[in-house]
Amino acid sequence: MIPGTENADALRGGAWHYGFHMAPHIPEMLTKGREREYIAAQIRTWSHNKSAVSEAAISEFAKHYAAPGGMTVGFNYYRTLREDAELAASLEVRKLDMPVLAIAGMHGVGTKLADALSKRASNLTTAIAEHSGHFVAEEAPDFFYDQVTQFLMT
């Protein structure tokens, strides 16, 4: 499993959006002209602290996603996951020996990212933000800053 896809299998309790975003052309068609609404809904859904990402920030994100090809670029991240999984599988015997930091929100992927990385990283530091969803840097900025600073200082 590629770290970052721990929540991908909707049939096993994962997030629905992986399959939707992988579909060719359909997500672009359904979000065209509605980029801000879609981005706002995704941010609010994935956030535990619903007010952490400001309306101004959402508008800024949406402006870039609404630019020609903007949504496609975002959806293509998901569309390449199958190919990425094949490459990752070919490297399965290798371990990451460098220091690795995994930060996640308890109300996001929780420990799933750390669990997936623990099989690959021999020098893993994990941090779970108790009151955060997907957007830890925005929802728990002090926690995020402290974790990154501590990691970089060691």
How would you portray this structure in words?
This protein is mainly alpha-helical. The chain folds into two domains: 10-85; 95-153, no CATH class. It contains nine helices and two strands, in the order ααααααβαβαα. The chain has helices at residues 17-22, 26-31, 35-46, 55-66, 70-79, 81-90, 112-118, 136-139, 141-153; strands at 100-105, 124-129. A two-stranded parallel sheet has the order 1-2. It is globular. It starts with 16 loop residues before the first helix and ends with a helix. The mean pLDDT is 90.
Summary tags:
154 residues, mainly alpha, 2 domains, two-stranded parallel ribbon, 9 helices
What is the SS-derived class? mainly alpha
Beta-strand percent range: 5-15%
Are there runs of 5+ residues with pLDDT below 50, and where?
none
Compute the number of strand runs: 2
Helical run tally: 9
Short description:
With 154 residues, this protein is mainly α. It contains nine helices and two strands; from the N terminus they run H-H-H-H-H-H-E-H-E-H-H.
Topology at a glance:
Elements: H1 17-22, H2 26-31, H3 35-46, H4 55-66, H5 70-79, H6 81-90, E1 100-105, H7 112-118, E2 124-129, H8 136-139, H9 141-153
Parallel strand pairs: 1-2
